[in-house]
Amino acid sequence: MAEFKDRLQDILEIKNLKPIRLSEMTGIDRGTISAYLSGKYKATQNNLYIIAKALDVSEAWLMGHDVDPQRIPDSNRNSDTPPRPTLPEFKTAQEAIKFILEVPMVADFGGYDLDRMTDEQLINFATEVAGMIQVMSRHYPSKDE
User: Fold this and answer.
1) Considering the entire predicted model, what is its pTM?
2) With 0-12 CB in 10 A as exposed, 13-18 as middle and 19+ as buried, what is 129?
3) Please, which residues have CB within 8 angstroms of residue 11's CB and are 6 or more apart in sequence?
4) Which of 136, 134, 140 is nearest to 44 (CA)?
5) What span, in angstroms and rounded, lies between the C-alpha atoms of 101 and 73?
6) Dist. CA 123–CA 40, nearest whole Å
7) Intra-chain end-to-end CA distance of the chain, in Å
């Protein structure tokens, strides 16, 4: 299976795009795009969707899976799936820490040392946790159902 960073680099080359242009197209910080290309970080679910849509490729292909890179337009996707809630966007490490601490199991599970994480790591960690909760929420009944 290919890696996200390699697929991202490949599609940028195919489309003759620079990382700064991808940042402009998606609104994702240039430093974050750079971290994706270097393999330092993998995209959050939300950013993966934004990048795949901007580059007109399948999210699964961009993640490295051996599938057709052709993107299925949002309008042709399964309409039975309820719209996903928007992920929180953490602007500061303090917002990310507050989110993590409001879900104590997250901070305790796995022995994560929040004191040793950089601000960027805290924000990415909290965003990924929120994304995982969002994915799980589609599999279980909500209070409104």
Assistant:
1) 0.55
2) buried
3) 55, 57, 62, 69
4) 134
5) 37
6) 14
7) 38
| Token pair for 56 | 């007109």
Question: Looking at the chain, how many residues does it have?
Answer: 145
Give the whole-angstrom CA distance, residue 59 versus residue 132.
16
Residues 56 and 35: their CA atoms lie apart, in Å, by: 21
pLDDT tens-digit series, residues 41-68: 888 888 999 999 999 998 888 988 888 8
> Do residues 87 and 93 lie in contact, with contact meaning Cβ atoms separated by under 8 Å?
no
Cβ-contact 39, 98 below 8 angstroms: no
Q: Return the closest-CA partner of residue 48 out of 63, 34, 35, 66.
A: 63
> Tokens 């994480």 sit at which residue?
117
